[in-house]
Amino acid sequence: xxxxxxxxxxxxxxxxxxxxxxxxxxxxxxxxxxxxxxxxxxxxxxxxxxxxxxxxxxxxxxxxxxxxxxxxxxxxxxxxxxxxxxxxxxxxxxxxxxxxxxxxxxxxxxxxxxxxxxxxxxxxxxxxxxxxxxxxxxxxxxxxxxxxxxxxxxxxxxxxxxxxxxxxxxxxxxxxxxxxxxxxxxxxxxxxxxxxxxxxxxxxxxxxxxxxxxxxxxxxxxxxxxxxxxxxxxxxxxxxxxxxxxxxxxxxxxxxxxxxxxxxxxxxxxxxxxxxxxxxxxxxxxxxxxxxxxxxxxxxxxxxxxxxxxxxxxxxxxxxxxxxxxxxxxxxxxxxxxxxxxxxxx
Length: 346
Ligand code: FAD
Prior knowledge:
7 helices, binds flavin-adenine dinucleotide, FAD/NAD(P)-binding domain, 7-stranded mixed beta sheet, alpha/beta, 22% helix
């Protein structure tokens, strides 16, 4: 049985607001674990617009989505947050009371964390993979059809078929090629939405006979008991081929869905979580909601609003985590104790 971790705060979603929550909770000595379904932190900024300039982050006349994420990662590093990426928070169980909250958070990767408070920073919902339109694909999912690589070793010695023409498809073709029995990349066009060096790397491996590229589209899967045997491909010239296949990886992009948040017994309003504007607490004491996922009169879905919300949520949460501690408001500019936590005290 997997070990249960204990912590002060679990943050669901490692977008910009989840990241900044680590900072605000950290200043008040609360230890954070962050969980995100994506393999990287940064939420919409990293996934949807990493290279777009943002013009309304206070103090930064212009900063790209990815640079903002990199800065946030640096800013929260002194608090040593524990990141659990590539996994979705599926369960949130109440263990404590309204006065003494305690929760159990569970993910689809068998992680269980017990925590005093929870911050839901789930944005527009979890980014979830788009499923290829192949009849019966559900029966293979999680066994031999995958939408992410959790453990590379699992593909060692396997015949791997990769569908897609973006960075994920190309990156995994290159990474798995040395360990797989055979990698075949299948894409409907001979043009890719991926970094040129990855495309060149893939073409070089194909030219050297070390992997295959098939111009076409998957049309059917064949196998038994969740284990694939063949992937049927209709090639660009109309020919139909059956590719021997142990595992299929599909990278058809991501879509945002509210996902399991809807099942946690919280009041919802049009798929958003209503909160008060003093503490940004939900209908369940000890569970806070910050960033794009929450709603209240006058809510603006802006990064700067989420930063403010995280700061106020921390001010309330600290009383649950350290009920007997006197909390004194302090500035980072002048508080030696805060500067020690940040590792910058002289
Ligand atoms: P998100 O960034 O959505 O991150 C939420 C994270 O939670 C995601 O990574 C998701 O995978 C994860 N998650 C959700 N549910 C689960 C679960 N159950 N388990 C695990 N993980 C989960 N805002 C501005 O202020 N200025 C701008 O100029 C601006 N420009 C924008 C341009 C574009 C094209 C877009 C799309 C948005 C823009 N925004 C802008 C909005 C801004 O990006 C959002 O307000 C911000 O990303 C919200 O941050 P968040 O952390 O609340 O959520």
